């Protein structure tokens, strides 16, 4: 990887990290769900700063260029994060369904209690 | 006639302990009202509450300790309570200390009183690993706020009206104790610790899993650091 490329990548990672930090600061996101993205920045940052690791894995995996390896890493990591969000969405969906059903049944009970009192 | 003091008892799968915990409270602190917050337990905690005629709230989905306790604070805020204290559903916290905590809260005009295991180091002292984690948080909190809190993870805490209102609106989710103490300290509220003796869990299983501990420590540490940074930001304006 050329020096210029590494500097560019570091700058991009820093910009992303600052963006995430501001979002947390403004309480726009739950820290819990932002942590994996920070981990991705740390991992990619580490790979960029220590290109020996990248070069080693690149040859090991039979990839042509180190930058392609970074791409692959970033991509796999992002997919993992996206999938974990998919799991979270599924869980939330099921919780919303449960809440809706309980509220509806509660509303019926209240209605009947009100009618009983009239 | 309702008192102005409420005991909030978060309970998740505490069917083994909940009856004894409540009977103990009724015996030692009958001048307090109490509310059990059943966090959608999968065992028969709810059934025990119904059968014994306990005062309870039944959450429709599981929210975790933070959400359950916050529900208790909402209840306290809505019903005009002046003092609220958390007691765990597992019997570790002894209601005998409530009157001491109340006296300290009122006499020293404190906003929050925490019952700490580690001032006199009597009674159940937790596992070595937990104590390591707790000492880490003590140091972090000292760094971030300048205050020394010997037992920042203690759920045995009493607050007055202003914090009841704050917590009812805004309370952290998982592992809420250290983060909420930091928020309160950064808000320049008065936090006092008194020594208490805690018992070992009387039955059932803790909801904290060791392998999630690293995640919790990182997450809570970050949350604390961000709380501090927000304070800095607001000061500059």
From TrEMBL, chain A:
<dbReference type="Pfam" id="PF10066">
    <property type="entry name" value="DUF2304"/>
</dbReference>
<feature type="transmembrane region" description="Helical">
    <location>
        <begin position="34"/>
        <end position="54"/>
    </location>
</feature>
<keyword id="KW-0812">Transmembrane</keyword>
<feature type="transmembrane region" description="Helical">
    <location>
        <begin position="60"/>
        <end position="85"/>
    </location>
</feature>
<protein>
    <recommendedName>
        <fullName>DUF2304 domain-containing protein</fullName>
    </recommendedName>
</protein>
<keyword id="KW-1133">Transmembrane helix</keyword>
<keyword id="KW-0472">Membrane</keyword>
<feature type="coiled-coil region">
    <location>
        <begin position="89"/>
        <end position="116"/>
    </location>
</feature>
<dbReference type="InterPro" id="IPR019277">
    <property type="entry name" value="DUF2304"/>
</dbReference>
<feature type="transmembrane region" description="Helical">
    <location>
        <begin position="6"/>
        <end position="22"/>
    </location>
</feature>
<keyword id="KW-0175">Coiled coil</keyword>
Automatic annotation (TrEMBL), chain B:
<protein>
    <recommendedName>
        <fullName>Glycosyltransferase 2-like domain-containing protein</fullName>
    </recommendedName>
</protein>
<dbReference type="InterPro" id="IPR050256">
    <property type="entry name" value="Glycosyltransferase_2"/>
</dbReference>
<dbReference type="InterPro" id="IPR001173">
    <property type="entry name" value="Glyco_trans_2-like"/>
</dbReference>
<dbReference type="InterPro" id="IPR029044">
    <property type="entry name" value="Nucleotide-diphossugar_trans"/>
</dbReference>
<dbReference type="Pfam" id="PF00535">
    <property type="entry name" value="Glycos_transf_2"/>
</dbReference>
<feature type="domain" description="Glycosyltransferase 2-like">
    <location>
        <begin position="7"/>
        <end position="164"/>
    </location>
</feature>
């Amino acid at each position: 990887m050329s020096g210029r490329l590494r500097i560019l990548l570091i700058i991009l990672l820093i910009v992303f990290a600052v963006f995430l930090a501001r979002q947390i600061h403004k309480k726009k996101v739950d820290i819990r769900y932002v942590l994996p993205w920070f981990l991705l920045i740390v991992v990619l940052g580490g790979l960029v700063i220590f290109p020996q690791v990248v070069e080693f894995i690149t040859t090991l995996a039979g990839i042509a260029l180190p930058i392609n390896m970074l791409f692959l890493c970033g991509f796999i990591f992002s997919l993992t994060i996206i999938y974990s969000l998919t799991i979270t969405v599924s869980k939330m969906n099921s919780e919303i369904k449960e809440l809706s059903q309980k509220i509806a049944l509660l509303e019926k009970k209240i209605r009947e209690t009100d009618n009983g009192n009239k | 006639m309702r008192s102005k003091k409420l005991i909030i008892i978060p309970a998740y799968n505490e069917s083994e302990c909940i009856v004894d915990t409540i009977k103990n409270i009724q015996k030692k602190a009958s001048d307090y009202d109490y509310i059990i917050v059943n966090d959608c337990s999968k065992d028969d905690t709810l059934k025990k509450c119904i059968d014994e005629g306990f005062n309870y709230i039944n959450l429709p989905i599981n929210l975790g300790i933070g959400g359950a306790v916050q529900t208790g604070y909402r209840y306290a805020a809505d019903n005009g309570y002046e003092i609220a204290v958390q007691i765990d559903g597992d019997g570790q916290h002894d209601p005998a200390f409530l009157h001491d905590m109340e006296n300290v809260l009122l006499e020293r005009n404190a906003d929050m009183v925490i019952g700490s295991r580690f001032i006199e180091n009597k009674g159940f002292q937790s596992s070595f690993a937990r104590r390591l984690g707790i000492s880490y948080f003590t140091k972090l909190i000292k760094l971030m706020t300048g205050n020394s809190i010997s037992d920042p993870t203690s759920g045995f805490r009493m607050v007055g009206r202003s914090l009841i209102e704050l917590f009812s609106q805004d309370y952290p989710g998982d592992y809420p104790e250290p983060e909420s103490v930091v928020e309160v300290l950064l808000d320049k509220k008065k936090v006092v610790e008194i020594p208490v003796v805690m018992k070992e869990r009387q039955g059932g299983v803790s909801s904290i899993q060791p392998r999630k501990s690293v995640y919790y420590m990182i997450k809570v540490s970050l949350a604390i650091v961000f709380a501090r940074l927000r304070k800095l930001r607001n000061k500059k304006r």
